[in-house]
Amino acid sequence: MNEPLLPLDEALAMLRAAIPLKGLARITADRDDPALDRSAMDGAALRSMDGIAPRTILGTLFAGDDPSTFHIGPGEAVRIMTGAVVPGGADAVVPVEELRIEGNQLFLLRLPKLGEAIRVRGSQAKEGEAILPEGSPSTAARTGLAAQVGLNPELFRRVQVGIASTGDELVGTPLPHQIRDSNGPMLTALAHRLGADAQKLPSLPDDPESLLDRFSNLGDIRVLITSGGVSMGEKDYLPMVLKELGANILFHKIRLKPGKPMLAALLGDRVILGLPGNPQSAYLNALLFLPLVLSRLEGCPEPDPWHRGFLTEAVKNRGERPLLLPCTLQEGRLTPVRSKGSGDLIALAKADACAWIPEGGMEAGETRYIQVI
Ligand code: AMP
Ligand code: MG
Fold this sequence. Notes:
There is one protein chain. With 373 residues, this protein is an alpha/beta fold. The protein has 3 domains: 6-22 and 156-298, MoaB/Mog-like domain (Molybdenum Cofactor Biosythetic Enzyme, Chain A, 3-Layer(aba) Sandwich), CATH 3.40.980.10; 38-119, Molybdopterin biosynthesis moeA protein, domain 3; 306-371, Beta-clip (Beta Barrel), CATH 2.40.340.10. Helices cover 20% and strands 28% of the residues. The chain is built from 7 helices and 23 strands. The protein has helices at 8-18, 140-148, 183-193, 208-216, 238-244, 279-298, 345-350, and strands spanning 6-7, 27-28, 38-39, 43-46, 55-61, 76-80, 92-95, 99-102, 105-108, 118-119, 130-132, 160-165, 197-200, 221-227, 248-252, 254-255, 263-267, 270-275, 306-311, 323-330, 333-336, 353-357, 365-371. The strands form 6 sheets. Strands 7-4-6-5-9-8 form a 6-stranded mixed sheet, with no helix packed on it. Strands 13-12-14-18-17-15 form a 6-stranded mixed sheet, with helices on both faces. It has a 5-stranded mixed barrel with strand order 19-21-20-22-23. β20 (323-330) and β21 form a beta hairpin. α3 (183-193) packs parallel to α6. The longest helix has 20 residues, at 279-298. The structure holds adenosine monophosphate and magnesium ion (MG).
């Protein structure tokens, strides 16, 4: 009874440590950024020292134009668009809103300021400058940056996630002693909500051969989520089959209610999340563990699923595990939904969030919660 169960945060840390983060290559500036002085505005490039005097317009420079066709002398200006290179001789860009143009004459509505609206060469990075170290998690912004410095940007690709329910009791049209598979559709929808490239696989019966066959034929699937078959039942074959296949079982059983029988394993370069069959357990463990797995395999920053809220009433928790309790959520206020425990999908479906109730329970007050999505 007194087996020390693995706390949730430690289980998450173990999983994080076991899956190498697929980070980015080192990013270095391949040239000065900007490579030349560029205009930050649509306006006119001119000499600030000529003051308020009208200017003669020599022509127009657009982004991408070669600026060497113009050189700004005293009393001259060039119309210039954002991103175009500031021509020689000019030291300011006056925005179009602050000037008036009549024919080829330009009148300023105010004095130009030296250096205004110019992005100076190398002001963002100098050629050869290290911008991001190797192994950084990928963000869309970093993909853009890789392209900017001439690296072949690795376009973001999702890993494939498969979801398989287990249980002899799962059938399409249940007799009274059977049930429908609710975990399969629920977990597939949840994985989609988390942005995963997920597909529901056929449910599996409780026999070792079927499990063995499933685990041995995963094709492109990098993450397999199962539900059921990881508890103490006599037909809970999943841990045994994984061991037989030489999987590295990272943990089996965590200190969480619901969700204690949770199992995580590495099978080659695949990740197996063996969720307990009870719907609340399966849902919450998927919500807690899948984002971490995806962020590691896909090389992205790990999202933090926790928020802070206010529990509106005292809650008992006699067990020796922290409880995730289905609650409604209104303006940060968490009110418990009547729940019959881990098998109660109705309570979970009515809930907006699950509140963290520490061992021993708590009075009304602040706690963390995870949103039901
Ligand atoms: P297990 O973890 O396999 O012992 O299952 C625990 C409980 O969850 C049992 O009451 C199962 O019938 C139920 N259960 C397992 N898988 C599913 C599923 N896919 N959909 C709904 N209930 C399930
Ligand atoms: Mg089962």
